[in-house]
Amino acid sequence: MSNTNEKTLYVFIDESGNLDFSRKGTHYFVFSAVATTDPHKSASSLQSLKYDLLKNGEDIEYFHASEDRQSVRNKVIDTISDNLRDIIKVHYIHADKQKAYQGLRTSEAFYSKLGTILVNYIVSYKSDGFSKIIIIFDKCLKKNDSSAFLKKIKPLLKETGKEYRIYFHRTLSDHNGQIADYFAWAKYISLERNELRPLRSLKGIKMTDFDLFRARNN
């Protein structure tokens, strides 16, 4: 039996909404972080679903909530709800972009603000019993912006005394990233369009939620 001090926490982070602060941009921006100690098991549930769909004539290369047909979305949501309740936890941070002060209205600044708060929360308060944390962000930022973000977050993580790794991968390259995509999309449409059914369908999963601007006027 492995020692609890040797456990690794895996965190897969995806976003929904965009970083456009003009009138053409989205109203909200959401980060979802799917945390698990068993990424093999969580990924295998979606892998099995993919094979079942292929067998039945559905041409599925990967799952992507905003692009999947409704029938596929329903199956993904059911698979997550039915199989992953004891395997994953989800942590949200979201923000109404219109409430952001001028200094936050760039992709690097806004992404760094939310991403740093989210990761710091997970590492500081949700990583007891783990000696290593693997954090995988969706690869959505330009290289300069991701480098600036890393410069801000690495000192905070170093202070925790835990071993960590941060990677930027395409969400669609990993089934756990696709799970994070579904949670980010479900939260986003609940805020942006008041479409609540997908998020309610996932309510069996343990979640935390933080509204960046709820407690203060930024």
Q: Averaging pLDDT over every residue, what do you get?
A: 90
Helix content class: 40-55%
Measured by DSSP, the beta-strand proportion falls in 15-25%
Q: How far apart are the first and last residues' alpha carbons, in Å? A: 48 Å
CATH class: Alpha Beta
What's the CATH topology name? Answer: Nucleotidyltransferase, domain 5
Strand order of the largest sheet: 5-4-1-2-3-6
Short description:
Helices cover 41% and strands 23% of the residues. The chain contains six helices and six strands.
Structure description:
The N and C termini lie far apart (48 Å). The protein has one domain (4-211): Nucleotidyltransferase, domain 5 (2-Layer Sandwich), CATH 3.30.420.10. The protein has 218 residues and is of the alpha/beta class. The model has no long low-confidence stretch (mean pLDDT 90). The chain has a six-stranded mixed β-sheet with strand order 5-4-1-2-3-6, with helices on both faces. The chain is built from six helices and six strands; from the N terminus they run E-E-H-H-E-H-E-H-E-H-H-E. The protein is globular and about 50 Å long.
Architecture blueprint of SSEs:
Blueprint: E1 7-16, E2 28-36, H1 39-55, H2 70-83, E3 88-96, H3 107-125, E4 130-138, H4 143-159, E5 163-169, H5 175-192, H6 197-201, E6 206-211
Parallel strand pairs: 1-4, 3-6, 4-5
Antiparallel strand pairs: 1-2, 2-3
Helix pairs in contact: 1-2, 3-4
Keywords:
single chain, 218 residues, alpha/beta, Nucleotidyltransferase, domain 5, six-stranded mixed beta sheet, 6 strands, globular
